[in-house]
Amino acid sequence: TWKWVVGPMFLYLCERLVRFWRSQQKVVITKVVIHPFKTIELQMMKKGFRMEVGQYIFVKCPAVSKLEWHPFTLTSAPEEDYFSIHVRIVGDWTEGLFNACGCDKQEFQEAWKLPKIAVDGPFGTASEDVFSYETVMLVGAGIGVTPFASVLKSVWYKYCHDATNLKLKKIYFYWLCRDTHAFEWFADLLQSLEAQMQERNNAEFLSYNIYLTGWDETQATHFVVHHEEEKDVITGLKQKTLYGRPNWENEFKTIAGKHPGSRIGVFLCGPEGLADTLNKQSISNSEADPRGVHFIFNKENF
């Protein structure tokens, strides 16, 4: 028995030593941005840090807890000179981080007063393969939209730098959210992409649909009243926000009809139930003919 135990224990100890070594490397918080609904953005720098789109890191803040590590998806793009995470204040640890960064104070916080941060990672996810396809469907549920912030930023940087060599030609983006709390910071990114794509006369590059799944009848009535306005009353985007849940069968059939003979990447960051639905739709809408359309499903759950 001891022979079977010693090997895994040795590998585990090696992993712990590597994590300890990583945690001792200096991380500098360059900016703390407070977004609406108690969401903060930490922009950081670390020597030798290399990332890809959609990856995540483990974060420890000794001022809050000397032992706790928490995973956060990176929301910055590899092309940027910093890496960032968005933290929504939903528990004791995140509340402690919020206060340690001075976000509970009205006055400006000096950089030297910001807490020390330890970072382990980055670690890979399925979203890294998004540039392997010409057409992709990105589906985020709630806070699961964060990996796609990194993806969309990186797509834009690559598109501006050399659009002709970018294999990715079409993005279908879906965001399902129970309420509007997360819209504030992410809508700014979509507004920027929308405006810049229109300036380059390529507004069709990104198609996005935002669904509010937790609306009541009063809110739905307000939506109908303002539906004819040029911009959406919630997000400020030209694409109108929808309420309810998408009809995935119709969505898959429509996309399959527009891209015959293509390999379409389907990327999800969301709950297991939605993953089962999208996986079944990917299988049922893929053709048996190798030359036909095929949906390749990729997921990460939270």
TrEMBL record:
One of its GO terms (cellular component) is monoatomic ion channel complex. It is found in: Cell membrane. Its main location: membrane. GO terms for biological process: defense response; monoatomic ion transmembrane transport; superoxide anion generation. Residues 19-129 form the FAD-binding FR-type domain. The keyword Amino-acid biosynthesis does not apply. InterPro entries: Cyt_b245_heavy_chain (IPR000778), FAD-bd_8 (IPR013112), FAD-bd_FR_type (IPR017927), Fe_red_NAD-bd_6 (IPR013121), FNR_nucleotide-bd (IPR039261), RBOH/FRE (IPR050369), Riboflavin_synthase-like_b-brl (IPR017938). Catalytic subunit of the phagocyte NADPH oxidase complex that mediates the transfer of electrons from cytosolic NADPH to O2 to produce the superoxide anion (O2(-)). In the activated complex, electrons are first transferred from NADPH to flavin adenine dinucleotide (FAD) and subsequently transferred via two heme molecules to molecular oxygen, producing superoxide through an outer-sphere reaction. This is NADPH oxidase 2. It comes from Thryothorus ludovicianus.
